[in-house]
Sequence to fold (708 residues):
Amino acid sequence: MGDDGVASAGWVSLERVLSGTVQRTGAVAAGVYLLSPDEPVLALTTVCGLPAKTLAPWWRVAVSAAGPLSEAVREDRLVWVGRQEDMARLYPNAAAGLPYQFALAFAPLNGTRRWGALALVWSESHPPSLTRRERGHVLSSANRITRVLDGAPAVWSVPEEPRAVPLRRSGPDPTQTGLAADDLLQRLPVGALGFDLQGRITYLNDAAARMLGRSADSLLGTLPWQAVPWLDAPVHEDHYRAAVFGRESVAYTAPGPSDRWFDIRLYPGDSGISAFISPSLRERTPDAPPPRVTPAPYTPPRGAGTGRIHQLMHLAAALSQTVTVADVIDAVADQILPAFGAQGMVVSAADAGRLRIIGHRGYDPRTIARLDGLPLNTDITPVGRVLDSGVPAFYAAPAEMTVAHPQAPALSGKQAWAFLPLLVSDRRVGCCILSYDRPRRFGAGDRAVLVSLAGLIAQAMDRALLYDAKHDLAHGLQQALLPVALPPVPGLDVTARYLPATHGIDIGGDFYDLIRLGDASAAAVIGDVQGHNIKAAALMGQVRTAVHATAGAAPGDVLARTNRVLTDLETELFVSCVYLHIDLAERRLHLASAGHPPPLLHRTGPAPHTVALEVEPGPLLGIQPCTAADYPVTTTDLPPGSLLALYTDGLVETPDTDLTHSIAALTRRLTRDAGRPLDELAEHLLHHHAALRHTRTDDTALLLLRSR
Fold:
């Protein structure tokens, strides 16, 4: 069997197992998400029981996304969401794009490698929890799919559009009952339609054809919102989705052509949807109010197309969680590209009269290098004109682009483009360009929704650009206040690390320093200024300057004089600090503390061990007048090969854990790993603590010194 035969057999096996999974678990639909080989994205590869187009906003989901699918893959566990209320509580962003009542389960697919996840959907009637038997069925189904994936690892690729799997059900032969059913439906005075799981019309009686204004032959096999213009409206899309996802019947009244109104009822099932349409009994008259229409959550211009409403909601939810420009680029690329079938994306911003590319997908880096830095008034691409005018531009084929910009098609190699200005209150933030590998016509609905999406992107991008600018400024200030490099001290090896907290753009007041006092002596200091802001960073710089000015004096005097400086500044912030005088000639260590966590000393020898140095602490710097502050000095031996660890509380503070226990745990780790090279040891200590805390809420400074 050739490669094509192996691939075909593999897909057939996967589809058979997926269809069997729906029957075995009692779910109404199932899908297989596979990890993309090129980026950290889960792509919907195969779906059974739901129309693939209905799921367009969720064809691609970032592994880092805050949702049950990504969580199942990241944490390698079954994730169950039994009710819409649970979805809204646990995953509010995901719930914004799924306003329906149903139950979900996501099971990871891990075999010879991490493949992705199995997704299962149950109707609203399912109880809010999984039974033990159902959980077993879900996990065994995931194992079956994993074995299929493991059996032909080279076969699986991510298609442009998910493969639709027919739901195989046992039952009577349709050919034996088809004529009788047709006669029955033709006798009905109401329009009757049948849709398959992909939303295509599989049957309609003569009454339905008359009401829709088209012949039966022209409607069979088509999607209703494409074949009948007045069905391409948000009210139909929203109720259709509610029926598909919730597996509950839906009834509503909606306007049709020629000022007529229709009652529409949808009855979903495992093989598709049955629909009945009839003239509304509440036809509009001059003296009667119009029939009530259930509103959709958002009403874009007519022609927006199925999937676009929820694409807006889904993207808005995703963009609400973005912080940096890179976050925005990832969210836009993961949501917009698959929904609109685009293969490329470029986001440019105006910077000092030039176009700077701040993000891209689907382009050769050499092409990006040629486009980056073009002047705003360039004729090579329409970006400058779009930014200047604020009017979007759409090009369906290279011939259209060539008229105004002859060089553009050859430069990018694309065949169609949408240039979307990113505007915030008439201020030009940038331009988002979607591009296609084939010519594409942009209908009125596509253009309207793309312009709406551009508004969402512009708001997020404006926030992200401001965040990045402030973050870069804060990071630059922080780095300027810390030592560029630690001075070499004969007989002493040293390394240091500084790790800022990850929340917001705040900068901190943690600091460290090493001061060479002579060929055989040095001073080491580490401290923590209260707060995470510019004031804390500025005070940290003043404390470092004060310590430098008095370094070489007795440790208690250094801290007392530094406290005097802070008292004179009348600052509201306090500082913890520990100062060490290292005498390498005498192998002695003299230290004083201002309320700081104790240094750790690891001694080598027949019985290597680490101790937290017992230092009688003095008051925090800046908390007491200079005349009342006293900082006792502690002296201890420093044998050759000893290792000193100075740190701030960001390295040892863990939620719900006593600080004493955390310091003891750090002491044990240092005893176990002290033999590592200093740089490797520093990274190991930081990463180990980060893994325990998951998120950092405080800055961390670490200074390691080893006597030779």
Summary: The radius of gyration is 33 Å. Residues 444-481 form the longest helix (38 residues). DSSP finds 21 helices and 29 strands in the chain.
